[in-house]
Every structure is written in C-alpha cells, then in structure tokens.
Design brief:
single chain; about 270 residues; mainly alpha; 7 helices; about 0% strand
C-alpha cells in the first residue's frame, strides 16, 4: 500500500496569528461598548504578526497570506467605521468592507468576519432608523405598550415617521441609481472618445506612411534625373572641347598656308 505524504508542519508564528485572529473575530462579534479597547490593541498586534509571518522563511502560500491580510484589513476598517460620528457614515463605510472568504478555524461553518459584517450592517441600519424616527436605541418599550400597539396598530406619528423613512430611503436609492447611470454614461463616453482617438491616430499613421513612401519615390526620381543631367553635362563638355580643338587646328593650318602662299616681302 502506498503511504500518504506527510503534511508540512504549520509554523508557530502562523498558529499564534490564527489564535489571535480568532480571538479578534470573537470580540468583534460581540456588541462592544465605547470603552472597549482590547480589540484595537489586538488588531495592532495582528498587523505586526502578519508582517513577521510574511518575512518568515516557512511562510504559507500567497493565497493564505492574502486571506489573512483581507481579514486584518476588515477588522481595521471595522474599528475605523466605529469611530465615525453619524450612523449613516458608519453604514456607508461598512458597505466598503470586504470580509474573509474562508473560515479561520475548522470549527467555523461560515467565516466569522462575514457574520460580523452582517451584524454590523444590521446594527448600523437600526441606528439609522432610530435616528430618523427620533427614538433612543437603548430604550426598549415595555410589555403593556407593546401589547397596546399590537391591538391598536401603529400611531399616526409612527405611520408618518415610517412614511418619511421610506421616502428618505427611496430618495437615497434614486440618487444611487442616478449616480450609477451617470458613471455608466461617462464610461461609455470615455470608451467612444478612446475609439475615436484610436481611429484618428490610425489615419494619421497611414497618412504619414503614405507621405514617407511618396518622399522616397521622389528622392529616387530626383537621383535618377541628377545622374542623367550629370551624364549630359559631361557629353556637352566633350563636344565643346573637340570643337575648340578643330577650330585651333583649322586656324593653325590656315596660318601655315597663308605664310607659304604669301611670302615675306623683301
């Protein structure tokens, strides 16, 4: 029988990181008070441990390191979102947080950071609703008031507040849709402008290539004409030289004949 390959031992630094990460996720899952300070200290220690693990000789695979970094960044973003003043800013910051994709420990069925993300989203939404309705989130209705509301139905003020909340949410939703449409329109315009610029550049390149070919052709023709002109100039010079030689010879012969025919008078 073939024996299974032995598993590589997990580095001690990674074990410490996983334990502290699991502890931070458990703290974040609990509803923390304003005086809670342990999670922030633990997240700072997590960052240092993650940097040390990335420099370790037996560090895990890059995918595992990226998952650890994703979870640490999520916890940091969660702390920064809690420090914001209004619940709407907290909810908006919470939307941009990216929780982990895999469980930290084998006991988890679902990544703890994803559970924390859903919990904080629900909590910030409740705080926004309480701010819009003008109620105190820490004050719970008693049993008699709850039963009375169940029998009589919501009060007119509550109906109006709920209608106002729905109108505000609908307004925000319409603004988001309008922004998305504008971004899509801008992206299409940018794409069209890019295509037009590419076509213009392509046409300019073709025109430049044609001009270069035409210049090369004209240069070749000019060179041929220069050679022909040079040859023609050489031929004309030769003919002129021969003509002058003939004239000189004719004058020389004429002088000799003139001297012989007309001797010197004594």
């Amino acid at each position: 029988m073939a024996t299974a390959a032995p598993m590589m031992p997990v580095p001690r630094a990674e074990l410490k990181l996983v334990r502290l990460l699991s502890r931070c996720e458990a703290l974040a899952a609990d509803r923390r008070g304003p005086d809670e300070w342990r999670l922030e200290k633990y997240v700072s220690a997590l960052e240092e441990m993650l940097l040390d693990l990335k420099k370790h000789s037996s560090k895990p695979a890059p995918e595992v390191l990226n998952e650890y970094s994703r979870k640490v960044d999520f916890l940091k973003g969660l702390l920064e979102a809690d420090k914001l003043s209004s619940s709407s800013e907290k909810a908006l910051a919470n939307q941009f947080l990216a929780p982990g994709r895999t469980p930290t420990t084998t006991k988890e069925r679902m990544p703890a950071t994803k559970t924390v993300h859903l919990q904080t989203k629900a909590r910030y939404t409740g705080e926004m609703r309480n701010e819009l309705l003008g109620t105190d989130p820490s004050r719970l209705p008693d049993l008699e008031e709850t039963s009375l509301r169940k029998r009589t139905g919501p009060l007119p003020d509550e109906k109006q507040s709920a209608a106002e909340l729905d109108a505000v949410l609908q307004h925000h939703h319409s603004i988001q849709e309008k922004l998305a449409e504008e971004m899509l329109h801008l992206a299409r315009n940018l794409k069209n402008n890019t295509l037009v610029a590419q076509n213009v550049i392509k046409q300019d390149n073709q025109t430049l290539s044609h001009s270069l070919k035409l210049a090369d052709h004209n240069f070749e023709k000019l060179k041929d004409e220069s050679d022909r002109l040079e040859q023609h100039a050489k031929k004309s010079v030769n003919w002129l030289l021969w003509l002058m030689l003939i004239v000189v010879c004719f004058i020389f012969i004429s002088m000799i004949l003139f001297i012989r025919i007309f001797p010197k008078l004594r």
